[in-house]
Amino acid sequence: LDTLEKWVTEIFSEIPNNGLPKPSFGHLTQPFDTPEFHKLYRVVPVRKVHSLSITWALPPQEQYYRVKPLHYISWLVGHEGKGSVLSFLRKKFWALALYGGNGETGFEQNSTYSIFSISVTLTDEGYKHFYEVAHVVFQYVKMLQKRGPDKRQVIWEEIQKIEANEFHYQEQTDPVDYVESLCENMQLFQKEDFLTGDQLLFEYKPEV
C-alpha cells in the first residue's frame, strides 16, 4: 500500500483542480417528451426470439441510491411465484421469462432522467397476444401503484438481506475493474458509501 500510495501521489498530484462543480443536466426535465416516444415499435430481431419491452422515462432517481426505489419495484415485477405477472403469463403459455429494472448505468440513470424497463420473452402464442401481455403488465403496475409500498417493510428487508449477503460473499473481482467502479462511485455517492452505494440498501422510505 505504501508503494501504491507513492505512485499515485507522484502521478496524480500535479493534475490541477479547476474548482468547477460537477456538471448537472437536471434542468432538462423532459428528455423524451416527444410524440415518437409514445408509440409501439416493431423490430425484426436478428435471432429467432419474441420479446416485448416496455420502457418508462422517470424523474432522476440517482439521488435516492440509499433507498433504491427502482430496485424495490423491479423485485416485485420480476417475482416468479404465485400471483406474479410471470406465473399468470406462463399459465396462459404466453411468456417464458420476465425482467424489470434499471441498469444504473449512465444511459439508464443520470441527472436528467431514469429509465425503467420491463422485458418479456414471449412464446409464439404470446407473440400473437402481445397486446394482452402488455395490458397485464400495466394492470400489475397499476395494482402496485394503488397498494403502495409494503407497510411492514418485510419485502424491503428481504431485498436488503439478500443484497447484503451477495455483497459480503461476492467473488473477488479484477482489481482494474474494481478501481474503475470505485472511481465512478466517487462521482455519485457520499464518501462513506463509495464501496457499498451501488449494491446495498440503507434506508426504507416508502414515500420515495
TrEMBL record:
SUPFAM superfamilies documented for this protein: LuxS/MPP-like metallohydrolase
Keyword Lipid biosynthesis assigned: no
Keyword match Endoplasmic reticulum: no
Domain Peptidase M16 C-terminal, chain residue ranges per copy: 2-153
Annotated ranges, domain Peptidase M16 middle/third: 167-207
One Pfam family from the record: Peptidase_M16_M
GO biological process: proteolysis
One of the record's GO molecular function terms: metal ion binding
Keyword vocabulary terms for this entry: Hydrolase, Metal-binding, Metalloprotease, Protease, Zinc
Superkingdom: Eukaryota
InterPro entries: Metalloenz_LuxS/M16, Peptidase_M16, Peptidase_M16_C, Peptidase_M16_M
Family note: Belongs to the peptidase M16 family.
Annotated protein name in UniProt: NRDC protein
Lineage of the organism: Eukaryota, Metazoa, Chordata, Craniata, Vertebrata
Gene responsible for this protein: Nrdc_0
